[in-house]
Amino acid sequence: MPLTPRPAILRMTPYSPGKPIDEVKRELGLTDVVKLASNENPRGPSPLAIRAVQEAATSMHLYPDAGAFALRSGMAQHFGVRPDQILLGNGSDELIHLLGLVFLSGPQDRMIVGDPSFVRYDAAAHISDAQLVKVPLTPDFRLDLPAMARAADDATRLVWLANPNNPTGTTVTRAEVDALLRDLPANTAVVLDEAYFEFATDAPDYPDSRDYLRDDGRVIGLRTMSKAYGLAGIRLGYGFAPAPVADAIERAREPFNCNTLAQVAALAALADAEFLVESVRLNTEGRERIHGAFRACGVTPVNGFANFVLADLHRPAEPVFQALLREGVIVRSGHVLGLPTFLRVSIGTSLEVDRFIDALTRCLTDLARP
Ligand SMILES: *Cc1c(COP(=O)(O)O)cnc(C)c1O
Predict the structure, then answer these.
(1) Which end of the chain has fewer CB atoms at under 10 Å, N or C?
(2) pLDDT of 37-72, one tens digit each?
(3) Is the CB of 268 under 6 A from ligand 1?
(4) How far apart are CA 159 and CA 180, in angstroms?
């Protein structure tokens, strides 16, 4: 090839999606397959968002509002922050890339992530050829903030905390985040990724990135419309940042990174309080049932607060993953997450949860037979 990419680019790995429903149907000759692998909202999008997208569809020959004025002011009001403290992106995945591009300058800079944590953070380091430092979780699968603080030095620009963490669902407390901020060098920022914020408000001493928002502050919050709000396919991520940070991201981003349909869908979804409450209620109910089902099979699930459940089967998870596929249930096999004895299952509708629990119980009892 005449063009050679920068070596750091070859350390980036394309996203590996869960198995597509159609592929599983075709390969296994099944007609009814459920996918519980991508942490989407099983109820679909809010009807208000659907209507807003339908109405805006007639204007899709026009460029989007580059400043996303209506959405930005709506969010500022909804979340009680200023418009110049809001980040908007083509999903929070884009904001993760932008944070790497804007705040890491090369091999002299370091960033710290948990291990395992959200796999897309690695891209922020590689895209800028920065050093990536991985700090193992505690034995109870939580981000180890004291160890992350010890791993930080003056070259450390960013520390990434997914709270709840993906793939474990575990949370860190406000007291732990406060201590981390005290222990980190003054020029190190913390990214508090709250992709599952709405599901976790009952977690003990659960922090909110907005409470750290000061223009001279060091905390950047990331959130998304993809999970609780059910808009994963249309792509709208957002965040809260000190105004100077938000200003730098504004300069670096593409002008039309939030498309017209995503802007109107997000604004409409935010206004549907009832949809959000019901989604969270259904999720908490499903989570408790799935936790119970794992326990009934002799497996202790990780104590998570997101819209998925992670469990250590204490044996290779791949055969169980395959057995569940044959039952028409797609989950995440732990080996893609660096956890070969674990399964991660997204919490579906109550019927999908029934289906998963039946299949899991059958698979684990069959496999236990000599
Ligand atoms: C799903 C997820 C995101 C990305 O969401 P977008 O769809 O890109 O907005 C970010 N962080 C974590 C931890 C996630 O699980």
Answers:
(1) C
(2) 999 999 999 999 999 999 999 999 999 999 999 999
(3) no
(4) 10
